[in-house]
Specification:
With 341 residues, this protein is of the alpha/beta class. It is built from eight helices and 15 strands. Strand 14, helix 8 and strand 15 form a beta-alpha-beta unit. Helix 1 packs across helix 8, helix 2 crosses helix 3 and helix 2 packs across helix 7. The radius of gyration is 20 Å and the shape is globular. 50% of the residues are buried. The structure holds NADP nicotinamide-adenine-dinucleotide phosphate (NAP).
Length: 341
């Protein structure tokens, strides 16, 4: 068993995508060499092999102070790698681990660097049947989608109850939600603004594809024709409001996103006349017990088919254009970041 304390460790130089606030208040990001001495004094040093790009990372990289207050900063809310040093005896040197959420990549230097130093309580041991690479194809997007699926199942939304709606379906969380639901034999309708991605969404597992405008009802009707047994909404705003009004009796709508803003204007009738549940997904602060349970499921019975085909890979250097693309809402599927290239 290897136990090392920080005090005896030699500092290491590593590459990281660093976001900076320039003197004219512009934000830039580029790959820099940093030293592990600059990482925070947390308990566990992890060598990061893979990360992934999430919408929040793009906000952090471009100066969104709601996500990251202090710059220079290394974004990356996801990291998968191996233990280098650990205070105490909870982890063995070389053990493969996943770190997602908490404060990683927000105000703690994150997975877009080849090393992170994090509290031991943030670490999930990599399940046996999952590789580091696949864990980051899933990443926070897959984990968040798993929370949504967990809410549906907890509320007895089984495949026989009818069709489940997924909004923002070609995005990271959307793609993973479609893929997990399909693996679990749900009938899934994918709502998207990218109708040219029908073939992709069918491959992921969607049964039918609709244009997102079908889930953007701006009438004042308090209830709409009921279509969905449940929904996983990644967009928010009018799409969440419409999904609630389109959901059948005793359905569940799980929401995680604020692509259309943070406000929700809706009415009480879906709740008091149809018994619809609105369930929140907070991947960052999901309790460790559920976190481990969901990662175990993602490694096994919930693991999407063809995971490799749902992501493209990039290096730290290539992240720049992927950040622009996710901010424009143009990403399709997941972006895996390989820190070893
Ligand atoms: N609460 C949590 O724990 C948690 C975790 C992960 C993500 N999130 C949030 O969930 C949201 C999605 O994250 P993500 O990583 O999946 O982002 P993403 O990969 O950028 O996907 C977002 C998708 O939303 C759709 N979209 C983009 N602009 C839109 C618009 N103007 N109107 C309607 N739909 C639009 C697009 O899908 P289509 O083109 O297919 O419609 C886009 O691909 C973000 O708000 C993110 O911050 C929250």
């Amino acid at each position: 068993m290897v136990k090392k304390a920080f005090q005896i460790s030699m500092s290491k130089t590593f590459k990281a995508l660093v976001a900076r606030e320039e003197s004219d208040s512009r934000f830039t990001h580029s790959v820099e060499n940093w030293d592990t001495d600059r990482l925070p004094q947390n308990e566990v040093l992890v060598k990061v092999h893979y990360s992934s790009l999430n919408y929040k990372d793009a906000l952090s990289a471009t100066g969104n102070k709601g996500v990251t207050k202090q710059y220079p900063h290394i974004p990356g809310i996801d990291a998968a790698g191996t233990i280098v040093e650990s205070e105490g005896d909870r982890f063995l040197e070389g053990a493969p681990v996943i770190v997602t959420g908490y404060d990683l990549g927000q105000n703690t230097f994150g997975g877009f660097g080849q090393y992170i130093r994090v509290p031991a309580d943030w670490i999930v041991p990599l399940p046996d049947s999952l590789s580091l690479r696949k864990s980051m194809i899933l990443g926070t997007a897959g984990f968040t989608a798993a929370i949504g699926v967990h809410h549906l199942r907890h509320n007895k939304i089984t495949p026989d109850k009818g069709t489940v709606l997924v909004t923002g379906a070609t995005g990271g969380v959307g793609t993973m939600a479609v893929a997990i639901l399909s693996k679990l034999e749900y009938t899934v309708t994918a709502a998207t603004g990218k109708m040219d991605q029908e073939a992709f969404l069918k491959k992921v597992g969607a049964t039918s594809i609709i244009h997102r405008s079908e889930v953007q009802d701006d009438s004042s009707q308090p209830l709409l024709s009921s279509r969905w047994s449940g929904a996983i909404d990644t967009v928010g705003g009018i799409m969440l409001d419409t999904a609630l009004r389109q959901t059948k009796h005793n359905g569940t709508v799980a929401c995680c996103g604020n692509i259309l803003g943070h406000e929700l204007h809706t009415n009480v009738y879906p709740f008091i006349l149809r018994g619809v549940n609105l369930a929140g997904m907070d991947s960052g602060n999901c309790l460790m017990e559920l976190r481990k349970e969901l990662w175990t499921k993602l490694a096994d019975e919930w693991k999407p088919h063809m995971l490799e085909e749902l992501a493209k890979e990039c290096s730290l250097k290539e992240l720049d254009k992927e950040i622009d693309r996710i901010l424009e809402g143009k990403q399709v599927g997941r972006v895996l970041v390989n820190l070893d290239t």
